[in-house]
Amino acid sequence: MKIYRTSNYLEMSRTAAMILAAQIQLKPDCVLGLATGSTPIGTYEELVRLHRLGYLDFSGVRSANLDEYRGLDRENEQSYYYFMQHHLFRHINISPENTFIPDGSQQDPDKECARYEQTLKQLGGVDLQILGLGHNGHIGFNEPADTFPKATHCVSLTRSTIEANRRFFEKEEDVPRQAYTMGIGTILQAKKILLLVSGSDKADILKEVITGPVTPQVPASILQFHPDVTVIADEAALARLDA
Ligand code: GLP
């Protein structure tokens, strides 16, 4: 694991965007694995800025998102589909038919998960995957568990994730209880992975992820076994690693 320390959130976002931009320059038809949550928003803003300046062409880029709430359709403002349109896709020249996200409106989990795995296979795998980090160590929506889930699956969200994501919804009852997510096995197939982490509230879990035992109870700890992971984290998030 390479660790890239930044002084703050903005610098973390710019660093991540530069790496994504380099990936697009090197392989204009690359497959980007994209994440949601508050952490990558600054990275997406920077990508939009670079695109508007004429430095970044997304016309050949393909993207696959990590996860989506089960039960929310695309029009729902809390869906990850909507998030991606709002923060990135509608501001750049990526073709809508080149963007892939699990379909939250699909009620049959087995069918939807198999369909999404097939989509990822047809894309030929992810070149560069961005990940955020949940407070309980989750990546995508792979919650702490007894085993590492291999493929895209339907997951019941833990209480802590429901509470953490409650801030995006009007009432706690509105937070979906389930989600479709790439599995840990799916995520590990990406050629390169960027883990973005910001803020003192992530300091304890980031230390566990980087230096603790590899265990499905801390899903992101599996990244220690991936050959090409770069953690881009700000000082606040890395504070417990200094100790
Ligand atoms: C959500 C997403 C994850 C994200 C995590 C952290 O549950 N499914 O992909 O990484 O939350 O979110 P944030 O970046 O807002 O802390």
Could you characterize what this model shows?
- The chain is α/β, with parallel strands linked by helices and 243 residues long.
- The protein has a single domain (2-242), classed as Rossmann fold, CATH 3.40.50.
- 34% of the residues lie in helices and 17% in strands.
- It has helices spanning 9-26, 41-52, 80-87, 109-123, 159-165, 184-188, 203-211, 235-242; strands spanning 2-6, 31-34, 62-65, 67-69, 99-100, 128-131, 153-156, 178-181, 192-197, 229-234.
- Helix 7 (203-211) links the parallel strand 9 (192-197) and strand 10 (229-234).
- The longest helix is centred in the first third of the chain and has 18 residues, at 9-26.
- The chain is globular.
- It starts with a strand and ends with a helix.
- Bound molecules: 2-amino-2-deoxy-6-O-phosphono-alpha-D-glucopyranose.
- Residues 35-39, 66-67, 132-134, 140-141, 161, 165 line the site of 2-amino-2-deoxy-6-O-phosphono-alpha-D-glucopyranose.
Helix and strand run = EHEHEEHEHEEHEHEHEH
Shape estimate: globular
CATH level 3 topology: Rossmann fold
Rg from alpha-carbon coordinates? 17 Å
Largest sheet: number of strands, sense, barrel closure: 7 strands, parallel
Oligomerization state = single chain
State the distance separating the first and last CA atoms.
19 Å
Unreliable residue runs:
none
- Determine the strand fraction and express it as a percent band: 15-25%
Arithmetic mean pLDDT: 96
Question: Helix content range of the residues, please?
Answer: 25-40%
Number of helices: 8
Q: Structural class per helix/strand content? A: alpha/beta
The neighbouring-strand order within the major sheet is 1-10-9-6-2-3-5
Tally of structural domains: 1
Per CATH, the architecture is: 3-Layer(aba) Sandwich
Number of strands: 10
